[in-house]
Design goal:
Structural class: mainly beta
Number of domains: 6
Number of strands: 62
Distance between the termini: 146 Å
Shape: extended
Radius of gyration: 54 Å
Helix content: under 10%
Length: 794
């Protein structure tokens, strides 16, 4: 064990942040470590320091409380190596039950005692009032260079100091108590004496403490973070305050760790070197067994381009790993980590060699020059696309021959998948997937774009070439080339399959001047003009649209670069005009130009009647008249007591028929909005007063003579222009005999057809005068009672 202090650890340790390998700045286990073992049943034994065995007033008190920790005793010479200490008994703590992982070669790793009780130390007997120093749950971290740190969860309970003053509780907090260099590892144990000499004590101000003694390099300290954690009264126990005597006993004593290692998986067959042609698959396999266990092994393949730095291969977690040969991957090494319940063992490395594939794919087209404005079907023939040289990496053809995509489009300059170009650089206007016959149904069949790739590497298929479709698909591509493209299907890798066969489109007419909008008065002339490159051999045909560009019609005889309308009719207002050019490249259209015809404004020449009175059921016509062209009408209504106007559905002529159905509609107002291309006007308001409808009741007595205790029937018919509703009341009033002074009344609702049938009560003997009246409704006037006859009852 060296006495030099590791400068690399000083900052982290003095700050008290050293908890794990990463946190204290220790390196990770070597990337090419042969095996990582699981550690179990680890014990940690530590006598703390010689100073704790002697003390100023005698040995420190030590106690253990809880599980997996106990106080042990050792011979002093065994701990210190000094014969003079042979007669001295040293006390310390032994923690048990630790677990973790280590590298079987370097010892690098971490061991944790997660579930332990407390190791309680006190530098003075109870009469001096020093606080307890409580340590639990140690963690030992070692890197591949033999450097390490030992931390504890530390706690100082509230107590009284040596002057009797109360001290507050501190912690719990994880603190590094010991750092190491040159840790001795023998496969199942560690021995290390913590650093001390040459390390200054840095107090809480960040400066070397005034009381620290260098003692010509012999003076030293425990980690400053630990010293600053404990109460001030006991801090001098952990650093040199002078030279000689008890000061030489302050360094920490040796730490001893032992543990059990389970047997790792046994590799019985190492991965072998593989050589494949580009595009074909290489497979690396390891054979391994798990001794004395039926638990399944886990595998994790890694790759390296230099044999030193290794990277995990995503998803490669089986005993075999298959990789498609790429020229850029030639020389790559592969190895696998095999893990069982006791740890991990790493296989030897195998090298992949990739040689060039003997392929020469070619593509021929039935045509390569096309018109620009129409679809053309082209036959594409391919040879040299050997299906054995491309393996898919995506479903549904992952791991098997995945054929070739054959596409028409306007691809970007850098479009090849083998160069890492994104899929967005290959916007297809039409595409087929050429695969082996037995796989066509798997990818959806011919109706979904499948085409046959024969075993000899040939195919023949058709694509639809349409320039506009290609341009739309390639809208996001800054610059590109029209052509027929091939590239591996299903995520396969085969750069030889990436081919480009250019095609050309006959140029369209180059329009150099577009027609402009024309605004003219009705009856005046209007001329639309267009210009184009005179080198273009093209015909001209003017077209007109009367539905805002939805449809276009040729204009007979309009075949020059100018189209003139001698006298513009008002009905042409809003028409669009354009020129159609046709040459060998197809049809090209100019921009559309609008014709605006100035039309005089409208004038209202006759207003609707300002006030109208109607009975329910009657009707009247409101009318408006106007002068002007292209006048439209829209009647509106405003309900009584409101301010909002709403359109009357379908009321778009000069006249509006008003037929109120209820007195509640009295006060309804009407108006009409008139408009033409020059503007709009609103008519005067017409107010409608609604009164009750008149009514007439025709009632008839069923019989004039009746027997006693019999009923007499009266029938009546209501006549009104409004809806039949309300009630009819019939009164039988006795005038002679036993009936005299007696009165019987019956009230019956009017049916929708206006009919009413009333039956009297059973009448006594005598003579009765019968009257009938209509009671009326909110919308229909009542009819006064009138005599309809006399009934004599015997």
């Amino acid at each position: 064990m060296t006495s030099r202090y590791s400068k690399r650890l000083r900052a982290a340790v003095s700050a008290g942040t050293a908890l794990t390998l990463a946190a204290i700045g220790l390196g990770a286990p070597a990337a090419n470590a042969a095996a990582t073992h699981a550690v179990s049943n680890a014990t940690l034994a530590w006598a703390y320091s010689q100073y704790a065995q002697y003390g100023i007033f005698g040995a420190w008190s030590q106690a253990a409380e809880g599980d997996n920790v106990e106080i042990k005793e050792w011979n002093g010479e065994e701990i210190t190596g000094l014969p003079a200490e042979a007669s001295k008994t040293y006390k310390g703590a032994e923690f048990s039950g630790g677990t973790g992982t280590i590298d079987e070669v370097t010892g690098a790793g971490e061991i944790t005692w997660a579930d332990t009780g407390d190791w309680i130390l006190n530098a003075y007997s109870g009469q001096f009032g020093a606080p307890d120093e409580t340590l639990r749950k140690p963690i030992l971290a070692i890197d591949e260079g033999g450097n390490g740190a030992l931390s504890f969860e530390a706690y100082i309970p509230a107590a009284l100091d040596m002057e009797g003053n109360p001290t507050e509780a501190v912690g719990p907090e994880r603190i590094v108590l010991a750092t190491f260099t040159d840790v001795e590892f023998d496969g199942t144990s560690f021995q290390a004496t913590p650093e001390f000499a040459g390390r200054p004590y840095v107090d809480e101000s960040g400066e070397v403490a005034a009381g620290w003694a260098d003692c010509e390099g012999v003076g030293g300290s425990w980690p400053s973070a630990w010293i600053n954690f404990v109460p001030e009264s006991v801090r001098p126990h952990y650093y040199s305050t002078s030279c000689g005597g008890l000061q030489n006993r302050k360094p920490p004593t040796r730490v001893d760790v032992s543990f059990d290692l389970g047997e790792l998986a046994g590799i019985t067959g190492q991965p072998q070197n593989a050589s494949v042609e580009e595009g074909k698959q290489a497979t690396f396999t390891v054979a391994a067994s798990n001794p004395d266990s039926d638990e399944a092994l886990t595998y994790s393949w890694e790759s390296s381009t230099n044999g030193e730095t290794w990277t995990a291969v995503n998803g490669a977690t089986r005993a075999s790993y298959a990789v498609i040969g790429r020229a850029s991957a030639s020389g790559t090494q592969y190895r696998v980590k095999v893990k069982n319940q006791n740890g991990t063992v790493t296989s030897s490395a195998a090298t992949l060699t990739v040689t060039a594939a003997d392929l020469d794919p070619t593509v021929t087209l039935s045509a390569d020059d096309f018109v620009s404005d129409a679809e053309t079907v082209v036959t594409v023939t391919g040879t040299g696309f050997d299906p054995n040289y491309v393996l898919g990496t995506r479903p549904p053809l992952a791991g098997t021959s995945s054929g070739v995509y054959v596409a028409f489009g306007k691809f970007a300059e850098n479009w090849k998948p083998s160069t890492g170009a994104a899929g967005s650089t290959r916007p297809t206007a039409d595409v087929r997937w050429s695969v082996l016959a037995q796989d066509m149904a798997t990818i959806g069949g011919e109706e979904n774009g499948a085409a046959e790739l024969r075993p000899d590497g040939t195919f023949e298929l058709t694509l639809t070439v349409d320039r506009a479709t290609a341009d739309n698909a390639a809208a996001a591509v800054a610059s590109g080339n029209y052509g027929i493209y091939t590239y591996p299907g299903g995520g396969g890798w085969q750069p030889a399959f990436e081919t480009f066969t250019p095609i050309t489109f006959q140029p369209l007419v180059d329009i150099t001047e577009q027609p402009a909008q024309r605004t003219v008065a009705a009856g005046g002339p209007a001329t639309f003009a267009v210009a184009y490159d005179s080198a273009s051999d093209a015909s001209v045909q003017w077209q007109v649209s009367t539905d805002d560009g939805k449809t276009w019609q040729d204009i007979a005889g309009a075949n020059n670069v100018e189209y003139k309308i001698d006298q513009v009719a008002a009905s042409l207002n809003g028409n669009l005009y354009r020129a159609k050019f046709v040459n060998s490249g197809g049809a090209e259209y100019s921009d559309s130009a609008l014709l605006v015809v100035r039309i005089p404004g409208l004038t209202i020449t006759g207003q609707p009647a300002a006030a109208t009175s109607l009975a329910v059921g009657d009707s009247t016509a409101l009318a408006v008249s106007a002068s002007g062209q292209f006048v439209t009408y829209q009647w509106q209504v405003r309900a009584p007591g409101t301010t909002a106007w709403t359109d009357v559905a379908g009321a778009t002529s000069q006249r509006l028929t008003v037929a109120p159905t209820a007195v509640a509609q009295s006060g309804t107002s009407y108006r009409v909005v008139l408009a033409n291309p020059a503007g709009e006007q609103i008519s005067a308001t017409a107010a409608v007063t609604v009164t009750k409808a008149a009514s007439k009741l025709n009632a008839k007595l069923g019989k004039k003579k009746a027997k006693a205790k019999k009923r007499v029937k009266v029938t009546a018919t209501l006549k009104t222009k409004a809806a039949n509703a309300g009630k009819v009341r019939v009164v039988f009033k006795g005038t002679k005999g036993k009936a005299k002074g007696k009165k019987t009344t019956r009230t019956v609702a009017v049916k929708a057809n206006g009919k009413v049938t009333v039956k009297s009560a059973k009448l006594r003997k005598g003579k009765y005068k019968v009257t009938a009246r209509y009671l009326g409704t909110a919308d229909v006037s009542a009819v006064k009672a009138r005599k309809i006859g006399t009934v004599k009852v015997r």
